[in-house]
Amino acid sequence: MNWAVFYLRYIRRELSRRRARTLLTVLGLALGVALVIVISGLSNGLSRAQKTALNPLSSIGTDLTVTRTAQTQNPGFGGGNDAGALLQANQSVITDLSKLGKPGTHFVHDFFLPGTQLTFPASQGARLKSLPGVAAVAQGLLLVAEHQSGTVPKIVARLKTGGQTFNIRRRIKPPTEAEQQQIQACLQKNGVTIGSPSTTQNGTGGFQGGTGSGRRRRFFVGPGGGAFAKCLPKRFHQLVTRFTTPLQSYRQVLDPPQTNIRTTPYTIGGVDQTQPDIALVTPSQVTKGRYLSQAGGPEALVAGTYAAKEKLKVGSKLDLNGTSFRVVGLVSPPLGGQSADVYLPLKELQTLAHEKGLANVVLVRADKSSSVSSVKKEIENNLGSSAQVASSSQVADKITGSLVNASNLSHSLGLVLEILVAAAAFLLAVLLTLSSVGKRVRELGTLKAIGWTQRLVVRQVVGESLAQGIIGGLLGVGLGVAAAAIFDAFGYGLSATSPSGGSGANLLGLGNTTLRTAKQTIDLHAPLTVELIVLGVALAVLGGLLAGAAGGLRASRLRPAEALRRVE
Amino acid sequence: MNNAAPLFEVRGVAKRFRRGDAAVAAVDGIDLVIGAGELLALEGPSGSGKTTLLQLLGALDRPTEGSILFEGRDLAALSDGDLAHLRLHAFGFVFQQFNLIPTLSALENVEAALAPAGVQGDALPQRAQALLEEVDLAARAEHLPWHLSGGEQQRVAIARALANEPRVILADEPTGNLDSKTGADVIDLLAGLAGMRGTTVVVATHDVTLAARAPRRVAMRDGRIVNEPTERPAAASVEALESRHLN
What we know:
By secondary structure, chain A is α+β, with helices and mostly antiparallel strands. Chain A has helices spanning 4-17, 19-54, 56-59, 82-89, 122-126, 177-189, 225-231, 234-244, 304-310, 346-352, 372-383, 392-398, 402-439, 441-449, 454-490, 511-514, 530-556, 560-565, and strands at residues 64-68, 106-113, 120-121, 134-151, 157-162, 249-254, 262-271, 286-289, 299-303, 317-320, 323-331, 342-345, 358-359, 361-366, 387-391, 493-499, 517-523. In chain A, strands 1, 2, 4, 7, 8, 9, 10, 11, 12, 14 and 15 form an eleven-stranded mixed β-sheet that branches. The longest helix of chain B is centred in the last third of the chain and has 18 residues, at 180-197.
């Protein structure tokens, strides 16, 4: 290394004594490197974010998801009328308020609805396993949950009685002979005198004017009036009772219950925890805690975003209609398709939602990636048109939002930008080196005159550029790391949105809740890797070498005599 | 020594430059023989071809026509690498503009000539320092060129030219940027150091008084030698050399 000492010292002198130019070159390269590092870092961050968010199915080892979405026509999968089935499936939303508790007391209840994603017997999904090209099949139950809490309402029935009277006229049969005699006997017995019975010999007699001889006869109702009433036959009694009771009419109006009920919607997924690799949520998505135990039981996984919103942690209790579920892990479910806020073992959710033996998602893994499209066709043929078979790429396509935009941007623009920035930095270094060589023509000519070989002169020029490149690279890495750290510190949230829980039409007014979209906000980071830093330095060194090569080439073309003829 | 091959043997050398459509001959039909240990002044006005001839002698350029033999070797037949080797070990250059490396100190400027010759380690600064002492600049070794006066700079250049014990020193208007007193001092120094070492010195100058101090004068006009005497008393040269050696 001894021989190099002088040349290195010369480089150092050259760089330190031409400070302004060195600084400009170094800063140019540093800025270029820093920008490339930051852009690459952001691009990496985006790719990482994208991997978690945009490639949901492939990341859970599933190639296809099969759902059955309610349609107004085309009975297929499971047969029957879909509209009816949809109503049936969502019946539980029609609340029998009396079951919530006594009016006025507080209640908390979770309602589970399949929404537009209809359920079907799990056995139908399992059937898909026998199709050619299918490697594995798992069931899932993805429900829209309405968490309601509030005061149980009183059901108020107001009754109004109307004063309307009905008048009924009726012809009453006169008393029979036997009745008259009975009355007479009764009256006499009670001391009521009635005219001589003899005068009634050829008349029919009675209470009113008879048809007989024309003589008018009267009843005498004396002090024994009560007795008269008493002596009337029962038939007359009844008649009197009916007519003296006024008729009443009822009108009943039942107002809708006044409540302070709050509804919080969320999505809940039943996970086939026995097949974790292709279940709705997989162990690889667990960010904290652990996955559901193989045996199932009252355990729950909660999506990180939902956990943050609801202040849930690993170990928290989640009370769902009287069953306490322990949160065993937080997950970062992929966006798109079939994701949920809360995951329970499939059996637990089936019980909770009264959907025993039912599922509404079948997750299918093909035996190899090339057979995905053929399997998709196979399933569509097998299940009919009401079955929606989505491949992972289709799901990813449905995802929109700033993350996607930024990711697309980074993919298309990032590289271009990096190349531009690097090229600009290189160009600056090259131009400055060329200008430096141009200004040092006489100096380099002198070196040749005093016996420096071509190789030595070029090596000197390249060495200077290389040294600038190394310094610029290191400075650039420093700048880039600092910029990335600042970026991380301030953070920038990118969101990704995807339709979740089926894609049916807005049926029965349930659309609002069932067509909720899943939104995931991912903080954009600029993760720096050793490779990236090495790349940064390498870029700067490359820039230095490039500049050195340009300068060296120019220096080497210099005929010493011409160089010396130049006068600065 | 007289029977030995001359140091330089220049035969019919021309150097033409293309200037636009016309070819301009900077030197044309030069024949010149320079013996070892001579002190020769190339005199003539600007543009007479002194510098071009000096550069051709110093292997900084190749002639368009003719041949230059140095110690019997045709320079035209040598590669660039061989020429660089000659420049390093056989030739020393002194320029009108001094041509010191501006970013290097006086000491380092001398080192710049020693380093390619393989001088390294402690020997490098020691030898450079010794050379600066010879030109009486030891005290200013750490100064950068622009902190030195013109005369001092030219003395550093002389130390640099002498660094590798060259056989020839080619000086192009070494006093052109100096006042006459300093110029005279510089020439005395150069002639003295070269004389002590037996080094041949070729000085190009337009300064007649300076040229007059040289034992041999070659006048040039328009790229040609105009008064080079073909015959000259060899004794004069020998005497001059001897007297210089005795100094």
